[in-house]
Backbone:
């Protein structure tokens, strides 16, 4: 017997048994999006392997959305990830920018780096560092000098780490803040999202997802807080997660992931409070 499938925007999958349209079997997906980090998660040594791309295409064919959540600036990301259009939206600059690949459109979600801080990093001879739309980025061990400069200038900026990378962003801007806006644009709730990552700057957005996963090469602290610890590293781990989403929509985790309810309550509180 052949089975035809049609996927609707609300996450309903209609299976038309035997190609007939009468009395379709209806199944609602709980998880409508995958939010994935890039370096150290989707990508290994800066590049995404072909089998990983095939897995993402299968996930998209199921009607789910793919959100890439990265600390990279867009020009740098595009130089290593030509297949970025496989993603519905990119949360770039660690939450400061949204990039819509198919529309070639960007939304800047935070203020530009202060010129006074840029000039101070030049004066301190901090090398290398880059200036994005919202982010300043450098590497360890420059974080102490950067923090001193922020305090000296009286700025409300923060330092976020990604292993050896040091990112400077406006207060309140992180991967979670960017992801929430991206999901709102897509019409998807945080509790309907599965997140996967590997490093310190992934804590925030994983905590904002209904289900969190850590690849095998993730930092121990991230694994300790994840709902799922994958048995393989980098993109191979993501493939395993995608297969589980396609196989049973993560129903094997049980009828309810406790943190998913907490995520929904927090999102509702923020909506009511206008945060």
Residues:
């Amino acid at each position: 017997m052949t089975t035809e499938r049609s996927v609707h925007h609300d996450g309903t999958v209609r299976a038309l048994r035997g190609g007939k349209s009468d009395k379709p079997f209806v199944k609602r997906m709980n998880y409508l999006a995958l939010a994935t980090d890039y370096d150290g998660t989707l990508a290994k040594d800066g590049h995404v392997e072909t089998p990983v791309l095939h897995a993402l295409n299968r996930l998209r064919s199921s009607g789910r959305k793919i959100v890439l959540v990265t600390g990279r600036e867009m020009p740098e990301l595009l130089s290593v990830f030509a297949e970025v259009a496989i993603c519905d939206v990119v949360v770039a600059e660690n939450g400061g920018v949204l990039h819509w690949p198919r529309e070639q459109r960007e939304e800047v979600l935070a203020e530009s780096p202060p010129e006074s801080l840029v000039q101070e990093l030049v004066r301190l001879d901090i090398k290398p560092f880059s200036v994005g739309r919202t982010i300043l980025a450098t590497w360890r061990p420059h974080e102490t000098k950067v923090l001193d400069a922020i305090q000296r200038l009286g700025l409300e900026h923060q330092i976020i780490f990604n292993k050896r990378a040091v990112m400077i962003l406006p207060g309140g801007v992180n991967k979670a803040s960017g992801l929430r806006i991206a999901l709102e644009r897509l019409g998807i709730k945080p509790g309907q999202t599965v997140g996967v990552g590997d490093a310190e700057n992934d804590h925030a957005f994983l905590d904002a997802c209904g289900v969190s996963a850590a690849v095998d090469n993730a930092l121990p602290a991230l694994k300790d807080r994840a709902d799922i610890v994958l048995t393989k590293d980098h993109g191979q781990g993501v493939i395993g997660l995608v297969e589980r989403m396609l196989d049973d929509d993560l129903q094997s985790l049980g009828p309810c992931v406790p943190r998913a309810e907490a995520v929904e309550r927090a999102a509702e509180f923020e909506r009511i409070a206008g945060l």
Q: What stands out?
A: The chain has a mean pLDDT of 88.
